Give the backbone structure.
Amino acid sequence: MIRADRSRCCGAGMCVLIAEEIFGQDESGLVVIDDGAARTADPALLRHAVSCCPGRALSEVDGAVPAKSSVDERE
Ligand code: SF4
């Protein structure tokens, strides 16, 4: 499963370019995720989206590969 921290999303839209069937943007440009599509997506595609997100807003959960950043998001 993939999660988005919308407070970190800068609206660059890279995720949408990578997988428009999973990611979209709301009227403010912030990411929205189709959880159903994400559930059945190729894990490699999800990892690619996570690694390309300039805001480091995306992360995989449930035992999958974590976001590229090792920085504690609370800092
Ligand atoms: S790539 Fe990251 S920063 Fe850009 S819209 Fe998607 S979640 Fe937001």
Confidence is low (pLDDT under 50) at residues 64-75. The chain has one domain: 2-60.
